[in-house]
Amino acid sequence: MAETISTRLLILGGGPGGYVAAIRAGQLGIETVLVEGDRLGGTCLIRGCIPSKALIHVASKFEGMVEAVNGRKDGISLSAAPKLDMGQTVAWKETVVDKLNGGVTALLKRAKTRVVHGWGTFSDAKTCHVETADGPVTIKAETVILAAGSVAAALPHIPFGGDVISSTEALDLAKLPTRLAVIGAGYIGLELGSAFAKLGCEVTVVEALDRILPLYDEPLTKPVKAWLEKTGVTLHLSAKATGWAKGELSVEQDGKTLKIPADKLLVTVGRKPRTEGWGLEEMGVDMAGPFVKVNDRMQTSMSDVYAIGDLVGEPMLEHKAVAQAHVAVEVIAGQNRTFDPATIAAVCFTEPEIVAAGLSPKEAEAAGHDPLSAIFPFSANGRALSMEAGDTGGFVRVVARKSDHRVVGLQAVGAHVSELSGEFAMSIEMGARLEDFAGTIHVHPTLSETVHEAALRALGHAIHI
Amino acid sequence: MGRFVFKLPDLGEGTAEAEIVAWHAKIGDLVSEDAPLVDMLTDKATVEMTSPVAGKLIEVAGVAGDMAAVGSAIAVFEVEGAGNASGKAAEPPPPAPAHQPVPDVAEVTETPPPTPAPPPEPKAAPQPVAAAPRVIPRRGEGEKPLASPAVRRRAEDLGIKLGHVPGSGPAGRITHEDLDAFIASGDAGASRGSGLAKRTAIEEVKVIGMRRAIARQMQEAKRRIPHFAYVEEVDMTELEELRVHLNGAKRAEQPKLTLLPFMMRALVRVLPDYPQINARFDDEAGVVHRYAPVHIGIATQTANGLIVPVVRHAEALDVWASAAEVARVAEVARSGKGSKEELSGSTITITSLGPLGGIATTPVINYPEVAIIGPNKIVDRPVIRHGQVAVRKMMNLSSSFDHRVVDGYDAAAFIQRVKAMLEHPATLFMD
Fold it and tell me: Average pLDDT of each block of 10 consecutive residues along chain B (431 residues)?
């Protein structure tokens, strides 16, 4: 006889949205059951952000050592070429993942969340059946939060399987491919493609649009493109992948067909919400295109059913899911909350990194702000020069309204700029003006001084340029 | 490069100042000669001023809603050649309260420093809101309220929509203190949960442009004129029959007849016997101007509010021509393109609300006129006629007069004559 659990709150999905919701619910005294079909941590911890950053970190270290073989400008030299044991790299990455997975497990335990491991399937909006290792479990809940996340989108004519891999498999390769072809020059394709290039792989990127990283404007992507070219990554823009056979990718470009031989083909053409395979269709919730439709309180069209994260729309980012988790649980606890951020900043761990918060100058203009914008280059920042990040074309850009100097956008490209995202997001949420940046002492010697200088420049009195 | 100062020209007799309605160019724009520059509002007409020169607009004398005196500089251009002004502060202060040029980021940065040596001090970038006294700027329509996450969260906890809370901080940011003030003001009483919630929004609507002109005109009329109202009942049955018949029999190119042209006809027939009513009273000079021509103001509702365009020399128009002229001037008024002749100079005004006419109104006289006539709604009403109860089309006729120069007796007699004309429509057309 199947076990039946009755609970106040059921959360489907143990990714960043789901587990944060469970912890917050525990803090608010809400009895919670969380259902996870895989390991706790979701795409982000297990097969996305964190493992890819681990790989990128290894790749950058390796690249530095390869450079040293011929003697680097900074005086480091190696007498022999470094070796890479890809199996060991993946195993090390797994220790990072394990640590985080263990951390999530411990946090949920402390929050008194009951975690049910197994694939959950809803039979109606408040009833979920889970196939656990110990047999079937039925969970009946007063309130449900759907946090099913997303999956890598596949190309219909080049399905995953064999040597055609998604980002998930790319992070678990036992052996480094000699030649890697990548379809899609979005942030996932370029982050991984760049890392593999640093590890010594011959990388070719095929993109259907005429530019890389279409989410960011041209000035921000220019240094990335320059790095790809310098590093020898082959870019085919306005090119359509038409088929994969016998280790060769067929690509159509300008009416001609190219053949790109490769050991592995990485397909990164975006992600789609995971809306299939767990009974969503039985729940009677309205959809908004491919996503589950929610209001600004994260409520679906079905009463007491909430949805958060990748399942409910773009941007599919961990930090957005977490913010929505807070809103959903607090609304369930009877608090008055809305998801209404001023900005959701985004970063891209390419070489160099990109960070963007708020509006670009063009977007600000389109929004009717009559913007004023200024950039400050890394080439004029001491800290950037001291870490060899001054000549990669990096810069910080500030976008403000001419009328009241309110900052509506902040972007940067350059080494380690992802760490500027906190200042960017915070200042936009606080409604900061250029004068607020100008009046804040930014620590020397750091990259953040460039933010200060960009604001000064927008006000017409930058010092170091 | 020279400077060309554009002074507000005389916009018509007696106009001492005009209101800026809208700029068609902004500072820094290159404006070609005769391109639309600014809309100025005089008593009731909006006049589009075109640019007198080709050049770059470098100064303007105010924003929409500001007044500018005739003869004062309203715009300064940077032009090829000499221009018409030398140096910076060429203009003496204008006689009327003219607006100071609004400092602007663009303007300041365009002004080159006298010597190239020291870069401008940090304070060279103006603080757009700091200098003003503590005035809370209004948010633009559809603009999201600006507040820190902590303030937003507190407002949510209190069930307060920040869109209703004025922000006094930089760039209109809502501070904790603003939230405190809002709560203290008692506006924040909305409770969650119950179906009925208090509404707390107070919208601030600046009275500018047309609305300011209307407000001033109404205030003058009521302040200066001791009104007295008179309401009489008129049997419109026969006139309505005639009107319906004429509309059925009219030629295609003839306008459809409403009550108005008949009412105008009645006025022009009766007014010669009551010259004190077809008049304008210049009370400051102590002179009543009695008019032989009958220029009838037609109170007209437009998108911007009440406008009274004028049918001139109504005495020379038959009902068809009157109807056509009413339609034309009303359209002119609604389009906002009326000339001074079309929008001023009436000697008596008709104000009709048509189907919204109600039973009685107390119309406000179109100062400096001395009388206004307001027909009310025509309704089927039982009346005693020849000892029998009959259903007749009855209409009340409300009117107001300036009691300083029109006696009650004369006004009543005048309305009785109008009533007799309307009840016996044939007399409208008999000499």
Answer: 83 75 85 86 76 86 82 85 61 44 42 44 42 54 84 88 87 88 72 60 80 90 95 95 93 91 95 96 93 95 89 94 93 84 92 88 95 95 93 96 96 96 93 74
Are A37 and A94 found together in one domain?
yes
| Contact criterion met (CB < 8 Å) for A405 and B149 | no
CA distance B316 to B259: 18
Which residues from chain B sit within 8 angstroms of residue A335, using beta carbons? 156-157
Residues written for chain B: 431
The answer to whether A461 contacts B105, with C-beta atoms less than 8 Å apart, is: no
Q: With a cut of 0.90, is the ipTM above it?
A: no
CATH number of B2-102: 2.40.50.100
Are A174 and A295 found together in one domain? no
* Paired tokens of B104: 């602007």
Give the domain extent around A421: 346-458
CATH number of the domain that residue A235 is part of: 3.50.50.60
B171 contacts A433? CB cut-off 8 A: yes
A313 and A221 in one domain? no
Of A337, A404, A461, the CB nearest to B129: A404
Asked if B372 contacts B397 with a C-beta cutoff of 8 angstroms, the reply is: no
Give CA A413 to chain center in angstroms: 16
Helix residue ranges, H only, A141-217: 167-170, 187-198
Active-site residue, B403 included: yes
- Number of neighbouring beta carbons within 10 Å of residue A174: 9
Q: How many domains does chain A have?
A: 3
In chain A, the residue whose alpha carbon lies closest to the alpha carbon of B167 is A431
pLDDT in tens, A241-283: 999 999 999 999 999 999 999 999 999 999 999 999 999 999 9
Is 0.80 surpassed by the pTM of this model?
A: no
Examine the domain organization and report whether A392 and A410 are in the same domain: yes
**In angstroms, what CA-CA distances link B29 with A372, B104, B125?**
17, 14, 21
- Full DSSP string of B52-106: SS-EEEEEES--TT-EEETTSEEEEEEESS-BSB-SSS-SPPPSS-PPPPPP-HH
